[in-house]
Amino acid sequence: MDFVQNIPFCSILLTLFSGTICSMLSKRAAKWVNTAVIIITGVMSVILLQYLLSTGESFVYWMGHFPAPWGNEIRAGILEAAMALFFCIIMLLSMWGGRKKLDEEVEESKHNLYYILVNLLLSSLLALIYTNDLFTAYVFVEINTIAACGLIMIRQIGRTLAAAVRYMIMSLVGSGLLLIGLCMLYDLTGHLLMSNIRIEVAVIMADGTYAIPLVITVALMVVGLAIKSALFPFHAWLPDAYGYSTISSAAILSSLASKGYIFLLIKIIYRVIGFEVFNSTHIINVLFVFGLMAMIFGSLSAIKESGIRRMIAFSSVAQVGYIYMGIGLGTRTGMIASVYHIFAHAAGKALLFISVIGLTDVSGFSRRFVDQTGAGYRNKIAGIGFTVGSLSMVGVPVFAGFISKILFAQAAVKNTGKLMPTMIVLAISTILNAIYFMKTVIRIYTPCPDCPYEGIAMKKEKLYAVSIILFVALNIALGMSSQPVVDAIASGLDMFG
Amino acid sequence: MSRKKTEKEYEKTFACHFFRWLHGEKDLYVGQMEMRPQEVYQESKEEAEKRQRAKNILLNKIYGRKKSKSIKYLELFYRLASILFCGILIYLLLLTVSWLPPIGVADRPVNNEVSKRYIEKGLEETGAINIVSGMILDYRAFDTLGESHVLFVATVTVLIMLRLDKKHDNGTDLSIEEAEANDRNYEPKNDAILQMSAYVLVPAIILFGIYVILNGHLGPGGGFSGGAIIGAGLILYLNAFGFQKTERFFTEKTYKWISFGSLSFYCIAKSYSFYTGANHIESMIPKGTPGAILSSGLILPLNIAVGLVVACTMYAFYAMFRKGGF
Predict the structure, then answer these.
(1) Is B276 in contact with A65 (Cβ distance < 8 A)?
(2) Which of A200, B8, B84, B311 lies in disulfide reach of A189, CB 3.0 to 4.6 Å?
(3) Among B264, B16, B221, which residue's Cα sits nearest to residue B128?
(4) What confidence score (pLDDT) does residue A93 get?
(5) Which residue of chain B comes nearest to A117, CA vs CA?
């Protein structure tokens, strides 16, 4: 076995351990440990990705001295490594961009607790990415949920506390459904390891004895994960959680925490249930319909919103809808488009959250639209960041969002039954996106000579500027050189099969 | 030969106290404990008005009491629909459970090679007589590692929510001293009955917890259950004797070091075991003779680590909810 194959195990354990270490450190030291751990994990993921691209084969890694169905196991393929790398990049940039705000909004003595939560969240995301065992996935889903609650309420104002309670209740309903589904799946198949369950599921479907309970089990797990990733009818927890928490938390939650669950769902579809079996159930159509509804209603809610941060939060609902719509198409190309959109949305949404805080800060800390007039001139770098993020979300060429929209459209063409609804809703949703994002961009670039607010010099906020520039570069890189990414996703999905 | 005691000596004996209590001459608890009768809560007029105003705002703005009739009907419909939905869901789930493989039949899917190997080879491969311990701390140790970090992250979240600072910072929160004074408002200090029973029970409870942890690999028990018992003992001690006495041996620093020490030991020990296992290197840890107290490799130290984490977590939760600090 090559030494490189230890990387998934190392990155999970390193991030987990760094969380424990941060509990003993001062604020400053915890900050550095956090940054170092994210960078080390990112570098390790690059090495792993290179190794996997050169060998072209996935591998499994025993967690302990016992082989597959008895012990725990993790597994790494191209898609897993790419996801881990991407999550590390977004997390690092989000932490950098929100650092100043974090210092202002969070009590001095609770900073190291924040870094513990971030480290444990990263560790749980990595475990969700790499795991090959459903129960391990559930354990780390729990860590992810609790850490996310902490991230929301670390800024202690009334709205965040209410949002955290709401998030906790909704999220626990999701976890509960996932756990019930898992128990029933274990009862039906007698395994917890993904590959073994898949063999048993194929037997059950061929046999037909337990086919109905199996479908209900799958439905429970899918609905559980959909609640946790804020698919349309279950999104009530989202706007306040993203709209009022400290900005790093909002960026991390919207672009990483919910995406971890979606990735787990994709993994369950491919590695536990089997793509063909899943497509033959009607669950996929339900996901498709909810995805379409989310694309429209999320955008409509965003248009109605008068606060800029809640507007961006509602836009997340629409974007999650895109991802579920792609899964619901039930084709390989649809799935590739969905995975690509996970990347594109994470890059764009984190950039929007980070740059919007720069805009509100130079508008007297107000979130209302009217007060943002001319904010793009007062904080130039945030204005550029917001514009790029908006263009990417709307789907303008050169930026990442364009590629995902074109991939969705291409995928829809291959599915004759769902072609018309997909195309129509895609068009409507794009127009709605354009309405609220362009409205904001025009607003922040309307000169406002009478405004009482003062501009800000970027020399004072170097870290913030650097993070926005890197985010912009990431968006453009994803949009300009999409082919290698799409190829990697395609080969990664093939490795799942 | 009997020896006669003087009056003064007799007054100190147990028999004297007992007979005086029996004849109703003296109540032993008078003067021994702080008796503060609970006061009837009386609201000042301003506060009552303020509360009424807040309630009205809540009813009007959030629940929309003054809104039109159609919204009221919509709310009624919403409630009925949600009850109906829950009913249907319960029916469906019960139906599904009835379709699952029957319990107690030999050819259930669960009776496969996985459980067979756990039962037949568990003792030989892990060295633990208690198969469950062998399963959670050796076969599937990664899950348990995650589980102990769930406790850790839960404590961190409770700390964020409830920990108070030593001093006032923004005027809205109480300082830790005020919280402690507040805590005593409706409870007597130094309750003699409670103190006496704690005096008898706490050592027994903690010893039993330690026994459960140390015997986790030999019989029913283990870190999670034993830790919960120790935590309960600590909470009882705290209730009886108050924070000042507990602080002599359990402060925030102790909590931090214990949980840091046990979690990092857990992490490092299991990293070693995962690393050697995955790279097919022989592990250096001896299994020992099954049945001896020092046996079954890493399971015993891991049980101790888990037990410490659980006990500290339980105590920390209680202290946080009680006054927002240790």
Answers:
(1) yes
(2) A200
(3) B221
(4) 94
(5) B153
CB atoms within 10 A of CB A392: 29
A91 in Cβ contact with A256 (< 8 Å): yes
CA distance A102 to chain B (A): 14
What does the pLDDT look like over A297-332, one tens digit per residue?
999 999 998 889 999 999 999 999 999 999 999 889
Domain regions of chain A by residue span? 282-497
User: Between the CA atoms of B7, B13, B14 and B18, what dihedral angle is there, to the nearest 10 degrees?
Assistant: 10
pLDDT digits (tens, 9 = 90+) for A349-359: 999 999 999 88
Nearest to B277 among A21, A62, A188 (CB): A62
Segments making up each domain of chain B, as ranges: 45-99, 129-323
Which residues have a Cβ under 8 Å from the Cβ of A327 and sit 6 or more positions away? A265, A266, A269, A284, A287, A291, A334, A335, A338
Residue A340 to residue B152: CA distance in whole angstroms: 34
Nearest CB to A146 within list B143, B153, B276? B153
Asked whether the beta carbons of B42 and B36 are under 8 A apart, the reply is no
Q: Is B108 touching A (CB cutoff 8 A)? A: yes
- Burial class from Cβ neighbours inside 10 Å (0-12, 13-18, 19+) for residue A109 reads middle
What is the spatial distance between Cα B34 and Cα B12, in angstroms, rounded to a whole number? 23
Residue B240: CB atoms within 10 Å: 21
Would you give the DSSP letter of residue A348?
A: H
Tens digits of pLDDT across chain B (326 residues) = 566 778 888 878 888 888 888 888 777 666 666 656 666 777 788 888 998 888 888 877 766 666 677 778 888 899 999 999 999 989 989 999 888 888 888 888 888 888 888 888 888 888 888 888 888 888 888 999 999 999 999 999 998 888 876 655 555 556 666 666 666 666 666 777 888 899 999 999 999 999 999 988 888 888 899 999 999 999 999 888 888 888 888 888 888 899 999 999 999 999 998 888 888 888 777 777 777 778 778 888 999 999 999 999 999 899 888 877 76
CB contacts of A189 in chain B (<8 Å) are 109
**Model's pTM, two decimal places?**
0.90
Three state DSSP letters for B253-274: HHHHHHHHHHHHHHHHHHHHHH
A16, A139, A212 member nearest B99 (Cβ): A212
Residue B85 near chain A (CB below 8 Å): no
Q: Which residues contact B167 (CB under 8 A, 6 or more apart)?
A: B175
What is the C-alpha separation between A408 and A344, in angstroms, rounded?
Answer: 13
CA distance A86 to chain B (A): 23
Å between B97 CA and nearest CA of chain A: 8
